[in-house]
Design goal:
Elements: H1 9-19, H2 29-39, H3 44-51, H4 55-69, H5 74-83
Helix pairs in contact: 2-4, 2-5, 3-4, 4-5
Length: 87
């Protein structure tokens, strides 16, 4: 009513930080990009076309992502990456 912020500055900082990515990710920038596209439901072929690389390169990135995140499937990788705020 007095024109102030509806939340305190501390709460606002916590909200903003909850949306920021974790900068301690074990993934490279390219692996993160591939995983984000995968999380959007894009196929390996589509990702390869968008990133101007061969489909086999995408497969290699996916294998590295699985190894680094210690997962065995696309769903597990996406879930863990979202939970840990890597994507």
């Amino acid at each position: 009513m007095e024109g102030g912020a509806p939340t305190s500055t501390n709460i606002a900082r916590m909200v903003v930080s909850s949306f920021q990515k974790n900068h301690n990710s074990p993934l490279t920038a390219r692996e993160t990009e591939v995983l984000e596209l995968l999380a959007q439901g894009k196929s390996y072929s589509t990702i390869a076309q968008e990133l101007y690389v061969d489909k086999e390169t995408i497969r290699t990135h996916i294998k590295n992502i699985y190894w680094k995140l210690e997962v065995h499937s696309k769903a597990e990788a996406i879930e863990k990456a979202k939970k840990e705020r890597f994507i």
